[in-house]
Amino acid sequence: MRLFVALPPPKNWCETLQSETFPLHHHFTALDPRWRTRDYWHITLAFIGQTDTQALPSIIAALEEAASVSQQAQLDAKAIKPFPSNRPNVIALIIENHDTLTELAGRVQGNLSNQGIPQQKRTYKPHMTLARIHHKNNNGSTVGPFRLKLETTIAEKMVLYNSVHTKEGSRYDELASFKLAR
């Protein structure tokens, strides 16, 4: 299994993004992006990676504990842009005002680390990938952000996903969900 923990995208955000499909795609045409469908949208909290099924109970326990003491996270976003800024390889919806979300990601990663599951040491930058950029040598800084107004919403749960590779590509299967406590 190839696992990760994420927030599912808010339904109202998905509807707004789908209504903006044409102007959004047109804005980033120069980057030759490979757009992802709504089924692939999520806000990653932690990447677990290739995992033996025997580790699943301890992973679920770690996530249950993190959810039981974590606040529901407020989600704000106003721009879509190439990400990361120094060498973009995706076009992403950038999450703003993310202190609670960063705290949740830290708690999830800490609990997983306590279970012996190594975590990446990079700074958490919450975003939702909408497209992949074909050529990493594209200079994303030449394309400015696409501004939009999304309604502020609350993330009430996090999900443990399994990324399954098939002949048609990958798909994300939900293995478990965890309601955020407060």
- Report the average pLDDT across residues: 90
Written as H for each helix and E for each strand, in order along the chain, the element string is: EHHEEHEEHEEEEE
Per CATH, the class reads: Alpha Beta
What distance separates the N and C termini? Answer: 30 Å
Please bin the fraction of helical residues: 10-25%
CATH superfamily, please? Cyclic phosphodiesterase
In CATH, the topology is named Cyclic Phosphodiesterase, Chain: A
Tell me the structural class.
alpha+beta
CATH architecture: Alpha-Beta Complex
Largest sheet: 6 strands, antiparallel
What general outline do the C-alpha atoms trace? globular
Low-confidence stretches: none
Note down, in words, how this protein is organized.
This protein is of the alpha+beta class and 182 residues long. It has one domain (2-179): Cyclic Phosphodiesterase, Chain: A, CATH 3.90.1140.10. Helix content is 25%, strand content 37%. The chain is built from 4 helices and 10 strands; from the N terminus they run E-H-H-E-E-H-E-E-H-E-E-E-E-E. It has helices at 11-19, 21-27, 56-68, 99-114; strands spanning 2-7, 33-35, 43-50, 73-83, 90-96, 127-133, 146-147, 153-155, 157-166, 169-179. Strands 2, 4, 5, 6, 7 and 8 form a 6-stranded antiparallel beta sheet that branches. A 4-stranded antiparallel beta sheet has the order 3-1-9-10. Helix 3 packs antiparallel against helix 4 (99-114). It is globular. The mean pLDDT is 90.
Features:
4 helices; 25% helix; Cyclic Phosphodiesterase, Chain: A; alpha+beta; 182 residues; 37% strand; four-stranded antiparallel sheet; 10 strands; six-stranded antiparallel sheet
